[in-house]
Amino acid sequence: MTAPVIGFIGAGNMATSLIGGMLQKNVKPANLIASDSKPEQCAALERQFQIRTSTDNAVLAAECDVLLLAVKPQVMQDVCRALPRERKPGQLIISIAAGISCVSLENWLGAGTAIVRCMPNTPSLRGQGVSGLYATPAVSEAQREQAESILNAVGISVWLDEEKLIDAVTAVSGSGPAYFFYLIEAMIDAGEKLGLPRDTAERLALFTGLGAADMAVHSDVDVAELRRRVCSPNGTTERAIETFRSQGLPKMVDDAMQACADRAAEMSRELA
Ligand SMILES: NC(=O)C1=CN([C@@H]2O[C@H](COP(=O)(O)OP(=O)(O)OC[C@H]3O[C@@H](n4cnc5c(N)ncnc54)[C@H](OP(=O)(O)O)[C@@H]3O)[C@@H](O)[C@H]2O)C=CC1
Ligand SMILES: O=C(O)[C@@H]1CCC=N1
User: Fold this and answer.
1) To test ligand 1's pocket by mutation, which of 9, 13, 80, 166 has the most ligand atoms within 8 angstroms of CB?
2) CB distance 38 to ligand 1 below 6 Å
3) CA–CA distance, 132 with 116 (Å, rounded to integer)
4) Which EC class is this protein assigned (predicted)?
5) Is 187 annotated as a binding residue?
6) Residue 70 assigned as binding residue
7) Which of 4, 182, 199, 224 has its CA 20 to 30 A from that of 270?
8) Does the C-beta of 125 come closer than 6 Å to ligand 1?
9) In whole angstroms, what is the distance from residue 37 CA to residue 33 CA?
10) Is a pLDDT exceeding 70 seen at residue 80?
11) With a 6 A CB cut-off, is 72 part of the ligand 1 pocket?
12) In this structure, how many other beta carbons lie within 10 angstroms of the beta carbon of residue 223?
C-alpha cells in the first residue's frame, strides 16, 4: 500500500510538533505538505523539515489523502468554508482544534465528510505524544486505521466512544503538558530560593519529572503507592506532601481541569 499524503493546514506549534515527530518515525518528507497564511512560516518549515509548503490551502485539499486541520479554533470556520467542496476522493479530515464539534465541521465542510476529531499534545515532537480520537459514522475502518497510524507515529492514542469526552482529554493531556511545565517552573524558583544555582535547580527539577514519569509508566504499582514509597514516616517528603494537601492542591487541580473542560464546551457553543 502506498503511504498517504498528509497535509497540515496551519503550520504553528502543534502542526510543527506532529510533523517533527512523524519525520523522526520514518515518515518521508515527500508525503507531508503544510500550508500557512504566513509565507515566512512556510519558509521556516521548508528549512527545518525539507517538506513542501504552500500558502494556498486549496492545493492541499486537492492532493492530500488526509487533511489535518491545525489552525486556531477561532479561524476554523473561515478556513473550512473557504476549502473547495471538490477535494481528493476518499479524503479523511482530522481536526485537532479544541472546542470545535464534528457537527460544526460537517456543516462547514459538507454533509457526509469523513471526520476524525483528535486532541493531541505537544510532546508529539519527541514521539511522546498522547492523543484522544473520535470518529464520525462516515469514517471507514481503513480511515480509522489511517488516523490511528498517524497519531501512533508520534506517541500513543486512545479511541473515544463519545465526542464529548474529547473535552475531558483536553483537560487531562491536551493542556496537560502546560500544567507540568508550570509545576517545574515553580520547583525551579523554589530550588533557587533554597540556595541552588538556577541552572542546577532546573536540571534537578527537569530530570526528576522525567524520571518520575518514566518510573510510573513502567511500574506495576500505582502512582499513589510510588508516592508513599518516597515518603519516610515523619521524614522530609511527608512534610512537603502534607503542605500540598493542607493548602488544597487536589482541589486546585480538580478546579483547573474542570475549568479547562468547561472552556472547551463553551468554545463549541461560541464557535458553532
Ligand atoms: N498548542 C497545543 O498544545 C495544542 C493545540 N491544539 C489545537 O491545535 C490548533 C493549533 O494550535 P497551535 O498550533 O497552538 O496554534 P498556532 O497559532 O501556533 O498555529 C496555527 C497556525 O495557523 C496559521 N493560520 C491562521 N489562519 C490560517 C489560514 N487561513 N490558513 C492557513 N494557516 C492559517 C496561523 O498563522 P497566524 O499566526 O498568522 O494566525 C498559525 O501559524 C488549535 O486549534 C488548538 O486548539 C490541540 C492540542 C494541543
Ligand atoms: O490551550 C488550548 O486551547 C489548546 C488546546 C489544548 C492545548 N492547547
Assistant:
1) 13
2) yes
3) 10
4) oxidoreductase
5) no
6) yes
7) 182
8) no
9) 14
10) yes
11) yes
12) 13
**153: Cα separation from own chain's centroid:** 13
CA-CA distance, 205 to 211, in Å (whole number)?
10
Residue 122 CB–ligand 1 contact under 6 Å: yes
Question: Across the chain, what does the average pLDDT equal?
Answer: 97
In this predicted structure, the answer to whether residue 185 has a pLDDT above a threshold of 70 is yes
ipTM for the predicted complex: 0.98
Atom of ligand 1 nearest to the CA of 73: 43
129 lines ligand 1 (CB under 6 A): no
Ligand nearest to the CA of 95: 1
> 137, 184, 127, 112: which is closest to 157 by C-alpha?
127
Whole-angstrom distance, CA of residue 189 vs CA of residue 193: 6
Taking the CA of residue 76 as reference, the ligand 1 atom at the shortest distance is 43
Q: Amino acid identity of 227?
A: R
Q: Specify the CATH class of 6-163 in words.
A: alpha beta
Fold of 176-268: ProC C-terminal domain-like fold (1.10.3730)
CA–CA separation, 87 and 64 (whole Å): 8
Check whether 59 is labelled as a binding-site residue: no
Residue 1 binned pLDDT confidence (cut-offs 50, 70, 90): low
CA–CA gap between residue 65 and residue 78 (Å, rounded)? 21
pTM for the model: 0.96
